[in-house]
């Protein structure tokens, strides 16, 4: 999370992962000790930084990621190129600390390594060389050189063995690798090494060890996951999300400035609207703008939420916390900001226009604006769970809201909507129906206006305006509209939770199906791929 400092990021992660039996001070000490082990003690109070603010370097960010993963001292740890972006000295110290962790706590660590120095390479106990889906070597690091030498590809003196191995088995640039190789193609070299390894004593010893392990009595599998309680997870995520929203200008502060500007525009355009017959249309237009377009601006925080979703996806798959804790934390932390951007801009628009003067009418106006804004955020959360790309998500969310605005009962009155689909069910699904009706009932009930229609009574009441002019359903009070909107907020947040859980269960099934396809398998073997992706495939 780019807005947090190194200390905050690791400490919050420690609170999420470590058991409740540990005190806060013990978790804090564990976090700071881990930071020092990764050599980040001088950057503890530096923000991680992202596209908007300068912060840590790429290598330092990798070390923060490693800190978060080794907090719980996991029994099995995968590291994908942990030394990328680090100089040779930093690479050695980071890997040396990781090796010490493995020794001290009896842990197994698997790493895909990017151009290791000779000192870093010597830290590894075992080596797995992969080339185009084939296992070239798997065994002790010290025995790899003998395999290459016996097949006519010895490592020259004073050369880094890892560089020599990778150059020998890399056919992206199919040229002679070393002097003395002659015209042999790299593919032929790879085949020679693969056959030699399969017939070697090292391979037989590996197969023997695998057989021996497979015959052992299996105990229950230990799943990596958070040891903190659900309540602790929710509290920590709420605190972390609140800080992130406060420091991220794009989340709420930019929207607050835009809300102020829009409400000043509304307040000056509709200033002192009065109680004339023409003010009926003007009131309805102003309230519709607030219910539709002011809440529409809630999609402005979507890019920041998508970044949160990326963090949530990684931490969720690593077992740090569940979907429920994330939804609760995000919801509670956003409430103060939504109240703030509903209250102050709402007050500007309300009193500049000259709507009903009583304080209870103003409070209802603010609560309804707050609920509608939270509902739009809930809709965008649901969109984000299906469309993770923020550009596609904004387009999708804007399209959904555009349809809801169109048949919300203003541009086309309810009785004039085509009954198939648009009136039933879309009119009742669109939240603008309830937002518009709540605003209209709050404003028009109790007022009276002069009647300009020929042959009619001299005045027309607000109730008559609601029934005949706006075709509002008067069988229930404005508070029912508010309750329905709150219910929609809950429904959309539950939809987000359900979609995340469903996708999590369906994705492995799709991957299994794709892996079982012969066409897919042949593509994996034929196309070049990196060491990292081949390790994942293995």
Topology:
Elements lengths: L5 H12 L6 H14 L20 H13 L5 E5 L7 H18 L2 E5 L5 H4 L4 E6 L2 E7 H10 L10 H9 L16 H13 L2 H14 L15 H18 L1 H21 L9 H18 L5 H16 L5 H31 L5 H28 L3 H17 L13 E2 L2 E2 H4 L1 H14 L3 E3 L8 E3 H8 L8 H39 L1 H9 L4 H7 L1
Helix pairs in contact: 1-2, 2-3, 10-14, 11-14, 12-15, 12-18, 13-15, 14-15, 15-16, 15-18, 15-20, 18-19, 18-20
Main location: membrane
Subcellular location: Membrane
GO cellular component, one term: membrane
Runs with pLDDT <50, length 5+? 176-183, 518-538
Could you report the average pLDDT, rounded to the nearest whole number? 87
**Principal-axes shape call:** elongated
Span of the ends, CA to CA: 31 Å
List the domain count as a whole number.
Answer: 2
Strand content: 5-15%
Strand segment count:
8
Biggest pleated sheet: 2 strands, parallel
Strand arrangement, largest sheet? Answer: 1-2
Share of helical residues: 55-70%
Output the radius of gyration: 32 Å
Structural class: mainly alpha
Number of DSSP helices? 22
H/E element order: HHHEHEHEEHHHHHHHHHHHEEHHEEHHHH
Membrane topology: Multi-pass membrane protein
Family: Belongs to the ABC transporter superfamily. ABCG family. Eye pigment precursor importer (TC 3.A.1.204) subfamily.
Pfam families: ABC2_membrane, ABC2_membrane_7, ABC_tran
Organism: Gossypium armourianum
């Amino acid at each position: 999370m780019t807005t947090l400092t190194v200390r905050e990021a690791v400490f919050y992660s420690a609170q999420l992962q470590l058991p409740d039996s540990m005190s806060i001070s013990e978790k804090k000490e564990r976090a700071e000790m881990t930071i020092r082990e990764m050599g980040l003690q001088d950057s503890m109070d530096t923000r991680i930084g992202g596209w908007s603010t300068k912060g840590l370097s790429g290598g330092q960010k990798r070390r923060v990621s490693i800190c978060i993963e080794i907090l719980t001292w996991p029994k099995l740890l995968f590291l994908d190129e942990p030394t990328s972006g680090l100089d040779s000295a930093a690479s050695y110290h980071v890997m040396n600390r990781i090796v010490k962790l493995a020794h001290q706590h009896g842990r197994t660590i698997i790493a895909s390594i990017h151009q290791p120095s000779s000192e870093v390479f010597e830290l590894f106990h075992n080596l797995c060389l992969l080339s185009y889906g084939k296992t070239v070597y798997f065994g002790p690091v010290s025995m790899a050189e003998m395999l290459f030498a016996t097949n006519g590809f010895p490592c020259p003196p004073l050369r880094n063995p890892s560089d020599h191995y990778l150059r020998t088995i890399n056919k992206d640039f199919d040229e002679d690798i070393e002097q003395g190789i002659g015209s042999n193609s790299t593919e032929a070299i790879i085949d020679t090494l693969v056959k030699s390894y399969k017939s070697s004593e090292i391979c037989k010893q590996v197969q023997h060890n695998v057989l021996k392990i497979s015959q052992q009595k299996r105990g229950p599998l230990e799943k990596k996951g958070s040891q903190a309680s659900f309540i602790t997870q929710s509290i920590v995520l709420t605190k972390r999300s609140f800080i992130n929203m406060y420091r991220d200008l794009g989340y709420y502060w930019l929207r607050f400035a835009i809300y102020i500007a829009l409400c000043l525009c509304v307040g000056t355009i509709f200033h002192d609207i009065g109680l004339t017959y023409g003010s009926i249309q003007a009131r309805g237009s102003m309230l519709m703008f607030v219910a539709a377009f002011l809440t529409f601006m809630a999609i402005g925080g979507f890019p920041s939420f998508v970044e949160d979703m990326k963090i949530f996806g990684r931490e969720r798959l690593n077992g740090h916390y569940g979907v429920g804790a994330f939804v609760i934390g995000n919801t509670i932390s956003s409430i103060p900001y939504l109240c703030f951007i509903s209250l102050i801009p709402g007050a500007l628009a309300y009193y500049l226009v000259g709507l009903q003067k009583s304080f209870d009418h103003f409070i209802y106006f603010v609560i309804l604006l707050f609920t509608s804004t939270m509902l739009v955020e809930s809709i965008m959360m649901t969109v984000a769970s299906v469309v993770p790309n923020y550009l596609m998500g904004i387009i999708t969310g804007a399209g959904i809201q555009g349809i809801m605005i169109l048949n919300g009962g203003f541009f086309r009155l309810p009785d004039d909507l085509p009954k198939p689909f648009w009136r039933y069910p879309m009119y009742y699904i669109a939240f603008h129906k309830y937002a518009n009706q709540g605003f209209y009932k709050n404003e028009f009930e109790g007022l009276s206006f002069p009647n300009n229609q020929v042959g009619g009574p001299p005045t027309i009441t607000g109730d008559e305006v609601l029934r005949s002019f706006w075709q509002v359903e008067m069988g229930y009070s404005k508070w029912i509209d508010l309750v329905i909107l709150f219910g929609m907020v809950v429904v959309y947040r539950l939809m987000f939770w359900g979609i995340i859980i469903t996708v999590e269960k369906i994705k492995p099934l799709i991957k299994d199906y794709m892996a079982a396809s012969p066409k897919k398998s042949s593509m994996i073997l034929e196309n070049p791929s990196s060491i990292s992706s081949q390790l994942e495939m293995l």
